[in-house]
Protein: EMARD protein
Amino acid sequence: MALSDSITTCLSPPVHYVICNLGFEKTDAYNINNILSENGEVCWQAVTEHVSYLKSDQSLDYIESIRSLGPVCESVNLHFKSLTKEQFVVQYALWFHWTNCTELFLEAFDVLQYTQTTEVALGLMKLTSCLERALGDVYLLIGKDCPFLLRDLLASEQLAVVFGQAVMNVLRVFIGSPYGLNLRNVLWHGFASPQEIPAKYCAMLLFLTAGLGQLLQTYLLQTKCILVHRPYVIFFSLEELDVFPLNHETLSIAEELVKLSSFVLKAMLPFWMAALTAFKQSRYADCVILLLPQLEVGLRLLFTNTNKCPNRFLTAEVQFLSKMLAKHLDNDEVNQLPAVLGEPAMASEFLWDFLNHQEGPRIRDRLSHGEINLEAFPRAAANQIVAFAITLLCRFSDEDIFAFKEHVIIKQLMNCASCYHSRFHPISRLKKQVLECMKSIHLWPELPAVPAEHVQTTKRLEGNSEASTLILMISEIISQLQQYMPKNCNLSDDPINGILTERLLNTLCDTRICTLYSPRRVLETVVVLRKISTQCHQVCEQVIASAELRSKQWMDKTLRSRQRHNYLRMLNSIKFLSPVLRLILVLITLELVHVHLVCEKNPFDYQQYLKFLKSVLQYTENLVTYTSTEKNKWDETVELTNKALIKIREISDKKLMLMQLAT
Structure:
C-alpha cells in the first residue's frame, strides 16, 4: 500500500487531458451576451453552435465540442461571479423550480464564489444527481420506465422531444458519456481529486439547468402537461443499520488517522477531511457523498494491487464495485480482495449490505441518482459509513499508528467490525421473516374466545377428532426432526409447545450462515422459503383479523346461524393451525441452516427437493385463500392441512428433506 503515496492522480492520461486541459486550449474571451438575452433567457441556439459533429457519421465530436465550449464555460463562471446572491436569486431561482431542489442549486452559486476546490466537487456531485432525478421526472411525462443509467436517459427520444436533440447533445458533452467530460462519473467513482475539477464546469451546468427550466416551461404551456416529481426514497428499519458506535472522540482520532493511513491517497486527503467536518456539522448527506467515492478508490487500489492488475486502477468499469467484491475475476481466477479485507468477510458483507443488496439501503445508488432527500438524510446511515471507513483506515495502516489502534474506542469499532454479519442478504431477510411470523402466532392465545355462557353451543364440536388427529401427526413429524435440532431444544414431554417455540427459532436463526457468494441453487431455495414464510405470515394476520371481527359480531348478535357455526369451526381450526404454522417455520429454518451443505452434495436430486418445497408453498397459498375473511373455508382448511402433513411426513420418512441429505 506504499503505492498510495506515489499516486498523484486517479485519472488516466486521456481523461486527465480532457478534463484538466482540453477546455482551456482556446483562450479567447467569450461574450456572455451571446448566450444570455437581456431578459435573462438562455440562447440555446448560440450554445448548441459550439457542439461539433464528426463528418463520418454525424455523431458527437466530444473533443472538439469540449475545446469550443471551454471559453463559454469560463464566460458563464465570470458572469456568476459578477452577480450578488440577491441578483442571482432574482434572475435564476425561478428556473430551478423544475428540479424540485431549488435551494441546492442556489447553494451551488455560493460555492462558485470561493476557491475551495473540495466544495466545488461536492457541489457538482449534488448538482448532477439532482439534475438526473429531475430529468427522469421529465422523461416520465412521455415515457413509462425511466432508464437507470444517466447516459441512457440523456440519449432517450423522450427528452429529445421535450428539450430538443441539440440541447441534449450539449448535456452529453458534460455528463453521461465516457467520451465527454463525464463529470458525474469521475467524481462519484472517486477518479477526480478536488483540484482536478475546474469550477467553470460547475458554473456551466448550473447555467444549463436554468436553461432547461426555461425550455420545459414552454413545453408544459404548449402541452398543458403537469410535471410530477417522484417521491424520495425513505429509509425504514434504521435500527438495523445501527452497528458501529461513533462519537466526537472517535472523529477526532479519525482526523489523525486519515493523515497516516495507507488506505488514503494523498491527493484525496481534502475529501476525507471535508467528509469528517461535514459529519460534525450535521451535514450527513454531504459527509456520505464525499466519503463513498473515497472508499471506492481505496478499495480499487487494494483490488488492483492484490490481484496484480494495476492497469484497471485508472479505468472506469460498469458495476466495478460489485466486481471488486465478486468471488472470481473476469478470467475466472479467485479474487484476492475479500480475503485481504479480513475474515469473517466482514468488510465485504458490510459493503454488500449498504451498497448492493436490493433490500438494503443501496446508499450510493440512491444518492448518486438523486433518489434521496439530502436535507433528511439519516444520521444513522452516515454514522455507519464513517465508522466503517475508520475500520479500513486502521486495518490498512503502518505500524507507526499502533497507539491509535490500541485506543479503547478504536478497539471497540474493530470488534464490532469483526462480528458483523449481513442484515440485507436474502438469507438474513428470511430469518427476520420467520421470527416476525412466530411473534404473530404468539398473539393467538390472546384472541377473544367464545364466551363461557355459550359453552353448550360448542359441545357438539368437542367430539370432533380432526384437530386431535392433525396434532398427533405434527407430533410424529417433530419426533423425526428432533435429531436435527440443537441439543438444548429437543427435550420435552410436550413436543408441540415444548419444541416448536420462539426459543428454538431464535437458536436456529442465530446459527452463522455464510451469505457471501451464495450458490445459485441456494438463492433459488431461499426464494421459495421466503414465499412460504410470507404466506404463513399472511395466514397469521388473517386469523387474527377474522377472530377479532367475528368475536365482536358474536357479542353484538349480528351473525346469522351459518356464520356462527363457521366462527366456531374457525376457533376449532386455530387449535391445529398454530402448531402447523410453527412446524412450517421450524422446517424453513432447518432447511436454511443446512442449505449450503446439501447443495454441495452429489448426487443430489435438487429438482425433486425443490418440488417438495413448492408443494409446501402451494399449501400455504391455499391456506391464505381459505382463511381470508371473504372465504372462511374452515372445513376445507382441515382437509387441506391433513393432506399437507401426510406429504411432509412421507417426505421426511424417505429422507428427501434437505437437512437429512446434509448429515
Q: What stands out?
A: The CA atoms of residues 523 and 538 lie 23 Å apart. The longest helix spans residues 561-600. The radius of gyration is 31 Å.
